[in-house]
Request: fold
Amino acid sequence: MEEFKSGFVTIIGRTNVGKSTLINLLVGEKIAAIANKVQTTRTAIKGIVNRENSQIIFIDTPGIHKPKHKLNETMIETSFSTIPDSDIVLFIIEATSDDIGRGDRIILDKIKESKRKTILLINKIDLIKREKLLNLIDIYNKEYKFEAVIPISAYQEKYREIILDEIEKNLKPGPAYYDIEEYTDQTLRQLAEETIREKALKLLQDEVPHGIYIEVEKMNLRKNKQEEDIYDIEATIYCLRESHKGIIIGKNGEMLKRIGRAARIDMEKNFGLKVNLKTWVKVKQDWLDNDSIVNKFKIK
Ligand SMILES: Nc1nc2c(ncn2[C@@H]2O[C@H](COP(=O)(O)OP(=O)(O)OP(=O)(O)O)[C@@H](O)[C@H]2O)c(=O)[nH]1
Ligand SMILES: [Mg+2]
Reply:
């Protein structure tokens, strides 16, 4: 019989390249928020894949970007700190790039420094013509000895096994670190917070969604009248200013209702039970530079 293999695989790349979309595809569960906005992921999230002969622990990280405040700095520190601890790095870039941009260059330098085994994933190939890829692959192959370079679309299920096979090939023998029932290190509370934030990111515009964080204050499991399991969840959306609060609540409370409804539908699907969600909005100025809050996002 083949020896059992295991290892930690960090997913790193610029903001918005599709890291969280990819971890959700690989794990087969919705564990990380996805949005067409920069800086969606704020901390490292683990996703576990169990295969017949291996256990792969993925780490989704905040995207690399130019920091503007303490939270940004913490996010980037978190991302880079995962590299030396990983067995394999999944470096994701966008197929639409023509060359190595500033952000990708910084990441590449960190990878070179760490000398980690790295697989380069070129994501969003649905957006480009095949010919363009060859040039990009060529540019990157001159920079580092990647274990593999795989053009993918994180939207497409067919790439799941291809990526997992390539990773497994590069893993060393090792034990299963996590129970095979587990698929993430996120608690239900954290998953609820991420879901609400994802909906706020999607529905709100401009600077408002980047200045929010969610705190689930209460999560109670009970039976409803039909004897079904139902979670009563109470959450607060914190934002930076009174004007933001007005936007989040919206006219006649419409926006908050939309955010709440979308989050509830997602949670019911992902948790597999009914959810009764209540949300509030509060202002907390300057929290982006507040140590005690920002520390919540530090890697554990
Ligand atoms: N066209 C296309 N879009 C994609 C693909 N994969 C992801 N996206 C989109 O890219 C956007 C960003 O995806 P995320 O997974 O949130 O990106 P991320 O790298 O985790 O971003 P940060 O957390 O901010 O670092 C979302 O709108 C996704 O739907 C793909 O293969 N093709
Ligand atoms: Mg992300």
Notes: The domain at 188-297 is CATH 3.30.300.20 (GMP Synthetase; Chain A, domain 3). The chain has two domains: 5-173, 188-297. The longest strand covers residues 213-223.
